[in-house]
Amino acid sequence: MFKRVAFILLALSIVALLSPANAWWIQWYAVVENQLLNLLLDSGRIIGISLVLAGLLAPFEALGWWAGWYGGKQDPTTLSLKHTHATLGKVTTSPHYIVYLDGIGKSSFKYSFRGARFLQRLTESLPSDRILIDNIIPYSVINLPLTLNRPLARLWQWIERTTNFEVLVLLRNMFQVAVSVDSRYGPIYNRGTAEIIIDRLLTKGYQPGSGALITLIGYSGGGQISLGAVPYIKRVLAAPIEVISLAGVISGNNEVVQVEHLYHLVGEKDRVTRFTPCLFPRRWSIITWSNWNLAKSRGEISFISLGKVGHDSKNGPFDEDAFLPDGCNHLTRTLEIILRIITRIDGYEPYPAAVADYSARSERIISDYENYVQAKFNRPEFYPLAQTYSDNYFPVAEWIGRLILPAVTERSQVSGVYLEVHHAPELDLIGQKVYLRWSDRPDIQAYVNQVKIRIDFSEQAYQSINQGIVLPTRLNHWRQVQALESLAGARPNDDVMVALTSVEVIREPQLILSISREPILITGKYYALVSFTEVFPNNCAMVRHYNPDSGQFNGKEDMVYLPPVVPDRNGVLPTTANKITEFLLNQTGWYIYGAKNDQGIFTVQAIAPRALFQLQPAKIISGMQKTTNYIHNQYWQGATQKKVRLIRFC
C-alpha cells in the first residue's frame, strides 16, 4: 500500500511539473512580477525534475553490470568464483575478517580526514588475528570511484577538491542506497556488491567453508549495503556473518534474518538514522510479521546508544574534537564499542539484545527436568561403568557414551565435544573421556559449517525459562554452535546419553572419535526382552527372560529395579508399573532399557511393549491395481467406525 501511494504521488508530481496541466496553478506568480521569485520557483522546478531523472537513472549502472557491459556477462544462476570449489569444506584456523563499507559521502578511494583517522586507530587496536579490509566503493557494483573513468569524472574531482557541492555526492549515493533497497533492482545491485566483497576476502586468504567469522561494518548508507550483500556472501563462502551498523540507514528487508547478529549503533542526536524507520514500513512496530521485527523478537538485533552523537562530520561518531559528558571524545567511544564487539569472547555478550529479568526469580516455575534430576536414578553417577552383564542383556549400540560440553575456553582445542565412553568394541576406551568430532571429510565439514548458528536468548526465551521451559542456557551468547555442541548443551547438566555409528578411532596425536553420522539420543544403555512375574513393594520386580530357543519366556529369572516415576509439575504421573503383571501385553513381553546401579541391580529407565514392534497386518493386498482400488474405493468407507488396522501392500 505504501509503495502504491508513493508511486501515485510521484506520478502526480511529474504531471504537475512537466505537462501543460501545470500552467493554471503557476500563473499566479506571474502577476506578482517579481523576477527573484520567478527565478527561485523555476530553479526549484528544475532541481525537482533533475532529482526525478537522477532517481530514474540510478539503477542503470547495476543493470549494465548485469548485462555484461563492464567486463564480461555475469553467470545468471550463481556467483561463479574460481577459488571456491577447490577449498570448500577445508577446516582451517582462519582469522576473523572485518570489512568496512563507508558512508554515502564517498566518491573515491580516498577517505575523509575523520574516516581515515577512524580506520587508522581501528587498525592499530585490532588483535593480530583480525584482518581489516577497506577501500571498497559500496555505491558502485563495479567498485569504480566517481572520480575515475567516468564521463563526469572531472566534475566529481572538482567537487571532491572544493567540497562546496558535496551534497551532489550525497544525493547520487543516496539513490544507490535506494536501488539496494528496491525489490526489483536490489538483488542485482546487492549481488554485485557481494562479489566485490567476496573477491577481496578471497584475496586476503579467506577459505570458503572454513567457518571463519566475517564482520561487516557499514557506516550510514553502508549499513544497508552490508545487509544487502549478506545472503550472497553466505551462499558462496558458507560463512557466519555479523553486521555492525554504524549510524546505518537500514530498510529491514529479508536479509536482516540471515545475519548471525546485527549491532545497530545510533547517536541520540542522529536525526537521519532515527528518521529512517519512518520511511520503511517493514521497520514499523505494528508490522509484527516483518523480517526486521522477527529478528528483533529472536534477540538478533542489539540497539546500542553512542551518546549525544550526530550522524556525520562534525559532532558525528568519528569526531575527535567533540566530547561526551564523561570527557570521552566521539571517536574514542565509537572505537571502544566496536572493539568490544569484535574482540568479545564466547559466552559473554557486551551488548545483549535482551537481559534476563532476575527480579522475577522468586516467581519462576520449576521445570520438570529440575524435578526429575532430584531423583538419584535420573543422574549418570547412579550407574557405575564397572559392571558386567549376562548374555540376556544387550547393548543398544556398539558405541555408547555420555556427551560432555567443553568449557568456552576449550572450544578451539576440542573442536567438538567430550565423550565419556560407556561401551565400545575397543575395551581399553571404556571409561575414558575422549574427543568426539565430526569427520574431516570435505562433504561432512561443509554440512557442519552450514548448520552452525549463533545463540542469543531473546526476551521471550528468558520468559520461557521463568515458565519452566528447559533451554540451552550454557550456550547463550556462543558463536558458531555446531550440532554436537547443541546436543551436549541442550540440558543444564552433562547427562545426554547417545549411541554412535560410523565411528573412526584416531589415537595419535590424541584420542579422537571421528563420526560421519549424527549421534542418536538414547535412554538406557542395555536392553532385554522380559515378562514380569511379580512386583514387590520396594520397587523391585522379578522378570523372566525370553528364551530364543523355545520362543517362550522361560529363560533365566532376574531381579530388576523399577524406580518410582517422578510426577510432572502438575502432579501427573507420565507412566505407572501398577499391575503390570496383569496387563495383556505382559504375555508378549516387554523391552526394558537401562543399566545396573551401584548395587548391581538392573534399573529400568525405559520400557516398551514387544507387541508394539510386532505389528501384524489384518489383510495383505498385492498388485498395483488392487492396491489402488482398495485405497480409493474401500479403505475410507466407514472410517468413523473403524479401529486402527494395519494393511500390508505388496
Give a structural overview.
The protein has 650 residues and is α/β, with parallel strands linked by helices. A hairpin with a 5-residue loop joins strand 14 and strand 15 (512-515). The two termini are 56 Å apart. Residues 80-92 have low confidence and may be disordered. It has 20 helices and 23 strands. The strands form five sheets. It has a seven-stranded mixed sheet with strand order 14-15-10-9-8-13-16. 32% of the residues lie in helices and 18% in strands. The longest helix has 23 residues, at 35-57.
Radius of gyration: 33 Å
Strand order of the largest sheet: 14-15-10-9-8-13-16
Low-pLDDT sequence parts:
80-92
Give me the oligomer status.
single chain
- N- and C-termini, Cα separation: 56 Å
Helix content: 25-40%
Largest sheet: 7 strands, mixed
Structural class, by secondary structure, is: alpha/beta
Residue share in β-strands = 15-25%
